Amino acid sequence: MRIQLALTPFGMPRRWRRPPAVRLACGEWLRWQVNHRFAGSHGDAWTYRLDTFNIAHGPAQTELFMGTPTHYVNELAALR
């Protein structure tokens, strides 16, 4: 299975260079983390969002995502 995360075009900072897609073999799993900053509609206030996706290929035990992932993609950016 091939995984490529599609990001919202409204979040900041813009990510001009993205990690490549990840291929998962049966029995493997992926944790992909990405964060965003969204401008507020009133003044200078902004909101923060952290998304963590845990994706397994094939049958998985219920506690699988509590362990160490086979693949990890870190797209956490410094938010100013």
Question: Which keywords apply here?
Answer:
mainly beta, 0% helix
Task: Spell out the blueprint of helices and strands.
Blueprint: E1 2-3, E2 22-23, E3 29-39, E4 46-56, E5 71-75
Parallel strand pairs: 3-5
Antiparallel strand pairs: 1-2, 3-4
What does this structure look like?
By secondary structure, the protein is an all-beta fold. It has one domain. It contains no helices and five strands. It has a three-stranded mixed β-sheet with strand order 4-3-5, with no helix packed on it. It is elongated and about 50 Å long. The model has no long low-confidence stretch (mean pLDDT 89).
Instruction: Count up the helices.
Output: 0
- Mean pLDDT figure: 89
Distance between the termini: 35 Å
Number of strands: 5
The major beta sheet can be summarized as: 3 strands, mixed
- Give unreliable regions as ranges: none
Report the principal-axis shape. Answer: elongated
Alpha-carbon Rg, integer: 15 Å
Widest beta sheet: strand line-up: 4-3-5
